[in-house]
């Protein structure tokens, strides 16, 4: 029998930091060690598994449980990577247990959910309960940055009738969420000595106009027709850099834009909306370049209606509490999976407020309840017509 808390501590101790587009290196970066651990973990238990290439040096790992006489296949999805450890006030990869919590990077997002899913999956394989669903357990890569792992999984012939995606929801059910589009905007200028700025073109000044238009557009979006559950779309500029030194008129400036999508919005239309807004600047789009989006995660519309009642009943049986059903503004692996036609529900142990924090932690009880909930979900859905 797998102890999910012991397993969680083992998972936290294996670094799987997503560099998030930054030039990070070393043995703590990427999911390589985590993927190898998971493959070994499955094979030691006689569980069939395989690697699914998603990006150079990054592989999903897929494990299979074929339930006897099953009429349904359930996809359990959980990501292997964590955000970086900058600013953490605790040792990120030395899991500690204190006050009913497990501390460490990824404990909440989302290795607590992974430990619970692995424990539930191993129990299904060991007990082979009558009437359970078959389960494909997918441990994906690069969820925190580009969602390439779930995008590759979504386009494969996985055959699942429903996806259960592990994220910290305090074991409530998330049935819809916003999507995200992220790209860079660069302004070009002409460099010269700062003592004669009139001989150059200041790209930072040019960017100031861009930022003003984007702030205006963000305000317009906040007042636009909202989604009935998720509210309006949004736009935010999160990073800016440019220039060489203070005594050189800058010939470049670059920002990173985050556009949150509601169901029904398409990325191409959102990019055109920004382009049209910037075209009204003096000089139009001259000297303004758009980079290709590195994130294009679809929004998740409500699509799991028929599955809500049995899944909620399974969670209530496991936890003694009726789960709330709601939408969230952040994105998950459910975005690409849902866009490919798979109904999705997001559920897992922990509170999103603890994800990515300087002293990340998760409640032990939440992980234990999640392991029971995931097991019961598989048992309930196997015979559903």
Write the layout of secondary structure elements.
Blueprint: H1 4-12, H2 32-44, E1 49-55, E2 58-65, E3 73-79, E4 96-98, E5 101-103, H3 107-127, E6 134-140, H4 148-154, E7 162-165, E8 173-177, E9 179-188, H5 203-222, E10 234-242, E11 252-261, H6 267-278, E12 288-290, E13 295-297, H7 305-319, E14 325-328, H8 334-339, E15 344-346, E16 361-363, H9 364-381
Parallel strand pairs: 3-6, 3-7, 7-15, 8-14
Antiparallel strand pairs: 1-2, 2-6, 4-5, 5-16, 9-11, 9-12, 9-13, 10-11
Characterization of the model:
The longest helix is centred in the first third of the chain and has 21 residues, at 107-127. The chain is an alpha/beta fold and 385 residues long. It has a six-stranded mixed beta sheet. Strands 9, 10, 11, 12 and 13 form a five-stranded antiparallel beta sheet that branches. It has two domains: 4-178 and 299-381, Zn peptidases (Aminopeptidase, 3-Layer(aba) Sandwich); 179-297, Alpha-Beta Plaits, CATH 3.30.70. Helices cover 31% and strands 23% of the residues. The chain has helices spanning 4-12, 32-44, 107-127, 148-154, 203-222, 267-278, 305-319, 334-339, 364-381; strands at 49-55, 58-65, 73-79, 96-98, 101-103, 134-140, 162-165, 173-177, 179-188, 234-242, 252-261, 288-290, 295-297, 325-328, 344-346, 361-363.
